[in-house]
């Protein structure tokens, strides 16, 4: 019963932190950094609850500090790799919204080519042949993906 209560609390904190984060990010609020700390709290709480139950089955200090350090390094590398993948997917869309080159981030305005890297930033839409920003999820003329 206590396991279900702790798990429910961890899930609730994570969901509330995520909802707070997305709502404040969309509004551009000054309280946005505080929402990040709420997500961090929920994440730490979930790890504490998970580790509390894992240590009932084995004692991590029997393996030694070196093994614990290696696990921490591996977790950090995996988290960094996942963050880089996430940013690589999101960065071009963010740059297109800011009217920047999706490749280098140089401001392009209405130009067909980037003045920073020389790449083409507009191409013809595959459906209606209207000029479309490279990296934009939908065409501005026909609305298709």
Give an overview in words.
The protein has 145 residues and is mainly alpha-helical. The chain has a domain of 57 residues. It is 57% helix and 4% strand. The protein has three helices and two strands. It has a two-stranded antiparallel ribbon with strand order 1-2. The longest helix has 33 residues. The protein is elongated and about 65 Å long. The chain starts with a helix and ends in a 12-residue tail after the last strand. 7% of the residues are buried. The model has no long low-confidence stretch (mean pLDDT 85).
Layout of SSEs?
Layout: H1 2-27, H2 32-54, H3 65-97, E1 122-124, E2 131-133
Antiparallel strand pairs: 1-2
Helix pairs in contact: 1-2
Quick take:
The protein is mostly helical. It is built from 3 helices and 2 strands; from the N terminus they run H-H-H-E-E.
